[in-house]
Amino acid sequence: MTKKPIIWTISGSDCSGGAGIAADIKTGHGLGVEVCQLISANTVQNSQQLLSVNSVSIDILQQQAALLMTDKPPSVIKIGLVANVAQVKWLVQLLEQLKQKMPTLISVYDPVGQATVGGSFNSLTLAQLRPLLQDVDVITPNLLEAQSLAQLAEISDAERLAKKIYDDFAIHSIIVKGGHSEIALDSSDYCYHQLNQLPGKQDNQDKTQAAISYQLTSKRIASHYSHGGGCSFATALSAFLAHGYLVRDAFTLAKAFINQGFNASEPVSKLYGHQYYGAFEQQGWPYQAAFFPQAVDEVSKKYQTLPAFNSLNLAGKKLGLYPVIDSLYWLKRLLPLGLEIIQLRIKNLALADVEQVIIEAVFLAKSYDTRLFINDYWQLAIKHGAYGVHIGQEDLQAADLFKIQQAGLRLGISTHGCYEFLLAQQLQPSYLAIGAVFPTTTKDMTGQIQGLNNLTQVLALRPNNNITQIPVVAIGGINLVRAAQVVATGVESIAVVTAITEAKSSYNISPEQVVEKLQKIIG
Ligand SMILES: Cc1ncc(COP(=O)(O)OP(=O)(O)O)c(N)n1
Ligand SMILES: Cc1nc(C(=O)O)sc1CCOP(=O)(O)O
Ligand SMILES: [Mg+2]
Q1: Considering only CA atoms, which of 289, 196, 201 is closest in space to residue 245?
Q2: Domain match, 512 and 489 both
Q3: Is residue 457 part of a domain?
Q4: Which ligand is nearest to the CA of 502?
Q5: End of a domain among 278, 296, 314?
């Protein structure tokens, strides 16, 4: 058994059992994290009213934090109900101390202000909350809470509110729940997210890009059992962050967790058939594609009308081994080995030289009837009639997918985790790549190593229907020892660089022999 990540929740106790600490514990346990609880207040409430909020003294909270630090240090702290100014000050000090000791600590604040049944959990002003807001990494207000944090006179949309909150408090990730719903039947949450700023995280390879913003949208699921849903969302987000997911993936998984919970409570609600304000149903890890939201960003909006890319026309054959090489030398060496697919990935050549290599590569690959994908250089791939183009996440902003599709070229897209996979799947490319499955020396994939479990989870996000399923290629750190495990996940192909190009030093056999062995493993 591997050691579970530890999260601390600093929240109120809800005696009616649905929200606060109770929701946090149920959520955390369902998602495989240990939950340490520091109760900020003992509330008296039921489904009709909030009678009182009885704050716990700083002395007790401080003793708990000090003792827990000695044997259960957290990787994520989730903060919910903050009862008074003294607690704000204590939290600020605590976060500062802990972050000095543990620079990778992440703090998530769910600003609990108003009870759904009416009444306030605290009377804190924005000025009093400011020091805490400036200290946390992720914040998860609903639209009303965001409106009061942003202090904008006019009613604004989630995007405007999130950007204002960022400008005022420099919080790295702002998730506005119920943020933007063009169709009333949808439930849509908006995230504004600064890249590369979470402690110990590196969210994107493209260091020039300062922020990303996107929405996650699902069909609204009617349920009377929603009490504690907000707390559960923030705790689920914290649990996924504690497992090491990037914010966008943790957010996507948390939204799937919430959809799954609402879905589970529906029959109960129908059975009773009357208005009832019951507790949110925490389930376990969300696996089913049906619970995952639709991701919407600038790229997906731009390509809403883009037709599907041509398929790989495998005619019953397997895609098999996918070597990714950087020169005509390797192309000439590998093409005679009976490959269905190969990629030319040139990184260190002047543009004029690249063009000449591509011209020759296209000619060579055609003569062996092998599908040749060109990495990055999509214009040259079109100009010289390559079989396909492989593009990465950063290139998605700049490449013209309409032109690639109209020219009849196939398209492969890199993805790293469930969020990017859901987005890229909507573009209906010829194949999708998922990486990096394992650590790799070929390029810096810090923060984006998927592992076999995540690969399996992402594969399950394909529609459960063979006609529309897009082939998936696994890439990153795959070698002779690891290939069989990767194939067992159900991917259609494995892409490798160093397993072939460094065959001699790794295995003391020739690249040709490695190709033959990998082809046998893939079957
Ligand atoms: C099959 C396959 N998958 C992923 C990649 C990575 O492509 P990209 O994100 O464009 O990064 P670079 O290869 O350009 O560094 C790939 N090349 N092939
Ligand atoms: C080029 C590349 N792209 C990746 C991704 O995850 O998008 S991983 C990767 C490196 C693959 O090289 P090797 O087989 O030597 O590990
Ligand atoms: Mg590329």
Answers
A1: 201
A2: yes
A3: yes
A4: 2
A5: 296
pLDDT at 305: 97
Q: Can you tell me the distance from the alpha carbon of 286 to that of 246, in angstroms, rounded to the nearest whole number? A: 17
What pLDDT was estimated at residue 279? Answer: 83
Ligand closest to the CA atom of residue 322: 1
The total of structural domains in the chain comes to 2
State whether 54 and 129 are in the same domain: yes
Is 270 labeled as ligand-binding?
A: no
Ligand 2, residue 345: give the atom nearest the CA: 1
More confident residue, 365 or 315: 365
Whether residue 357 sits in one domain with residue 291? no
Q: Which amino acid is at 313?
A: N
Say how far apart CA 475 and CA 401 lie, in whole Å.
23
Give Cα separations from 263 to 95, 224, 233, 258 (angstroms): 36, 11, 15, 8
Is 2 marked as binding a ligand? no
For tokens 């976060």, name the residue: 95
The response to whether residue 475 sits with its C-beta less than 6 Å from ligand 2 reads yes
What local confidence, expressed as pLDDT, does residue 280 receive?
A: 87
User: What's residue 134's pLDDT?
Assistant: 96
Q: Is the CB of 415 within 6 Å of ligand 2?
A: no
Q: How far, in Å, CA of 171 to CA of 22, rounded?
A: 27
Residues 432, 497, single domain; the answer is: yes
Its pTM stands at: 0.94
Mean pLDDT within 337-350: 96
For residue 330, what is the domain's CATH number? 3.20.20.70
Q: How many CB atoms neighbour CB 279 within 10 A?
A: 22
**If DSSP codes are grouped into helix, strand and coil, which group holds residue 39?**
strand
**How high is the pLDDT of residue 206?**
42
Cα(374) to ligand 1 centroid in Å equals 10
Together in a domain, 231 and 369: no
Q: How confident is the model at residue 216 (pLDDT cuts 50, 70, 90)?
A: very high
Residues 308 and 292 reside in one and the same domain: no
From the CA of 496, the nearest ligand is 2
Given pLDDT bands bounded at 50, 70 and 90, which one contains residue 519?
very high
Q: What is the pLDDT of residues 244-268, one digit of tens each?
A: 999 999 999 999 999 999 888 766 5
State the Cα–Cα distance between residues 450 and 445, nearest whole angstrom: 10
Q: Which atom of ligand 1 is nearest to the CA of 393?
A: 9
Q: What is the ipTM of this complex?
A: 0.97
Residue carrying structure tokens 């996924």 = 240
- Residue 497 assigned as binding residue: yes
440 is in an annotated binding site: yes
Q: How far is the CA of 26 from the centre of ligand 1 (A)?
A: 39
Is position 1 within any domain?
A: no
Range of the domain at 63: 6-296
If you take atom 15 of ligand 1, which residue's CA is the nearest one? 443
In a domain, residue 421? The reply is: yes
Last residue of a domain, one of 296, 321, 349: 296
Least confident of 174-183, 394-403, 463-472: 174-183
Residue 426: is its pLDDT beyond 90? Answer: yes
